[in-house]
Structures are given as C-alpha cells and as structure tokens.
Prior knowledge:
The chain starts with a helix and ends with a helix. Helix 1 (3-136) crosses helix 2 (142-155). 95% of the residues lie in helices and 0% in strands. The protein is built from two helices and no strands. The chain has a domain at 47-155. By secondary structure, it is mostly helical.
Amino acid sequence: MNINATLIGQAITFFVFVWFCMKFVWPPIMQALEERKKNIADGLAAAERGRHEHELAEQRAIEILHEAKEEARSIITQAHNRGIELIEESKGSARVEGDRLLVAAHAEIEQEVNRARELLRQQVAQLAIEGASRVIRREIDAKVHSDLLAEVAAKI
C-alpha cells in the first residue's frame, strides 16, 4: 500500500462526502435554521406588538376611566342643579298657593264682615223700632219705618 494512494483516496472520499453533505444534508439543516430564526423573529415581533398593544390598551382604559369619571361628575352636577331647580319650583308653587289661600281667606273674611254688618244693621233697625215704639207708646207703621231705618242703616 502506498501512502500517497491512500491519502488521495481519502481526499477523494472526503470531497465526495463534503459534496454529498453540501448537496443533500446542508440545505435541510440551513432551511430548518432559517425557519427557526424566522419563527424566533416573528415571536419577538409578536411579543413586541403585544407589549405595545397592551400599553395602548392600558392608556385607552385610563382614558375611558377618566371619561367615565368626568361623565359621572357631569351627571352629579346636573342632578344637583335639577334638585335646586325643583326646590325653587316648589318654593314658587308654595308661594302661589299661599297667595291664593291668603286671597281666599281675605275674601271669606270680607264676606263674614259683610254678613256681620248686615246682621248688625238688621238688629239695630229692630232695636230702633222697638225703642221708638216704646218711647212713643203707640203703634208705628212698620212698613214706613222699616224703609226709613233701612235708609239710615245703609248710611251706617
């Protein structure tokens, strides 16, 4: 055996092996590595997008919460203002009702005063007739004197 021939045979076998590996073994390994690299890059990008979307969602949640608080403040303010308006309306209604009752009471008092005056006029007229008939001690024409006393009572 010649060492040169063995060396040349080993070199040819090595080159055939390298060619075979580069032709049939290396491309699937490189493809698997590229796919893994792509999957890792996609995963990192998705994680970054998820983190960014999470931050945006947090900001939006804070904005919505702030808007809800503002709306709640607005509703509370409106309710307070409406309550004040209702109180003022009630006060106005109470004043109007009080004035109406006061006018009705004054009218009723006026009617009672008029009735009392009329009753008093009648009693004064009767007393005057009775007193006059006792003083004169004679019969008095009731019709003539009642007209006369009615005229006097009207002046009173």
